[in-house]
Design brief:
Blueprint: E1 2-5, E2 8-16, E3 22-30, E4 38-42, H1 54-62, E5 66-70, H2 88-103, E6 113-118, H3 120-131, E7 138-142, H4 156-165, H5 180-184, H6 188-196, H7 207-222, E8 231-236, H8 244-253, E9 259-264, H9 277-296, H10 300-322
Parallel strand pairs: 4-5, 4-6, 6-7, 7-8, 8-9
Antiparallel strand pairs: 1-2, 2-3, 3-5
Length: 323
């Protein structure tokens, strides 16, 4: 289903993942110009791409970027039990498989590749860069889930009980937690839109899902030093869902030599679409400026790939000459 929206071509498609599940994908491509670069969006827990991330994708497409998104298994319009994450590794691998397939399309091979991850999607993006550090040109990390805030995390005793229970009743919705929508999005009308969106999961977190999110954030926090991709991390000072202190820790301990951190006073967790318009414009100005600066520098990843290819050709030639 393709349609034009304000000089942006929007399209949807379903693909099959390695486990035979049907996953929903969508894209926003600027018309009348060659895209500056590719951006792959990774949505947050219980969210989806085509509705909640639509305004984000449109802003970036109008700024000249080609945007591609995918609803995770159990999220949005994709197959699977709604709100259920059996393995975070599956989510990460599904994203790598699909996003890589888009990058390898002939017209995209010369374009720079950026990841944009929000909340849980920030953790997904960071894990993608850990698995393929030389494949991505940069990451925009919006309130990344490097650690779940104490405000919404079950107590240690409850965590221990829930961890044992998830082996028996993994899909049950019994994790006690605050309403994330109320603490994540500042603007009341946005909360109402999310609650009215049938593709957003509104129930209590399922046992295995909560276990996987917690396990993933603990592992990621321990391995922040492995992050080497260029990145900008953006966090609201009043975020009560993910820990801004760990975003600062990411800046301090990561191996990346090109990294930035933006902390926004009085802003909440949902920086991309949950704040008043004037705040959203500040956030997107920072994002597009960061992307434009790096895109204008030229594609060092392509240069590295070409250098390796030339070295391989040279070695092959030497072997042929010797034989």
């Amino acid at each position: 289903m393709a349609r034009e929206i304000e000089n942006v071509r929007y399209d949807e498609e379903y693909i099959l993942n390695r486990r035979g599940l049907k996953l929903f994908t969508c894209k926003w491509i600027p018309m009348n110009q060659q895209p500056k670069a590719l951006i792959f969006i990774c949505h947050g827990y219980a969210m989806e791409c085509s509705v909640t991330m639509h305004s984000t994708a449109m802003r970036l497409a109008k700024a000249g970027f080609a945007i591609h998104g995918m609803d995770y298994e159990g999220h949005g319009k994709s197959s699977g039990l709604q709100g259920f994450v059996n393995k975070m590794e599956d989510v990460v691998n599904d994203c790598i498989d699909y996003f890589s397939s888009v990058c390898e399309i002939k017209e995209n091979r010369g374009k720079m590749r950026y990841l944009l991850g929000e909340s849980m999607g920030g953790a997904v993006a960071l894990n993608m860069t850990r698995m393929k550090p030389d494949y991505w040109d940069g990451a925009v990390l919006v309130a990344p889930m490097c650690k779940i805030a104490e405000d919404v995390k079950p107590s240690p005793v409850m965590q221990n009980i829930l961890t044992k229970l998830c082996q028996i009743i993994p899909t049950w919705r019994i994790i006690p937690t605050k309403d994330i929508i109320d603490v994540a999005f500042k603007v009341p009308s946005v909360r109402e839109e999310i609650r009215a969106n049938p593709y957003c999961y509104k129930g209590r977190p399922r046992l295995k899902t909560g276990y996987e999110l917690l396990k993933s954030s603990i592992e990621l926090e321990k391995n922040l030093h492995e992050i080497s991709v260029p990145f900008i991390v953006l966090h609201g000072e009043e975020d009560r869902v993910t820990e801004k202190a760990v975003s600062k820790q990411l800046l301090d301990v990561s191996a990346s030599t090109d990294k930035s951190f933006k902390l926004y006073p009085e802003m909440w967790h949902g920086l991309l679409y949950g704040e008043p318009l004037e705040n959203i414009e500040i956030v997107f100005r920072d994002i597009t400026n960061w992307l434009d600066e790096r895109t204008s520098m030229g594609n060092s990843r392509l240069e590295r790939e070409q250098k390796l290819k030339n070295e391989d050709l040279s070695k092959a030639k030497q072997v042929t000459e010797i034989s």
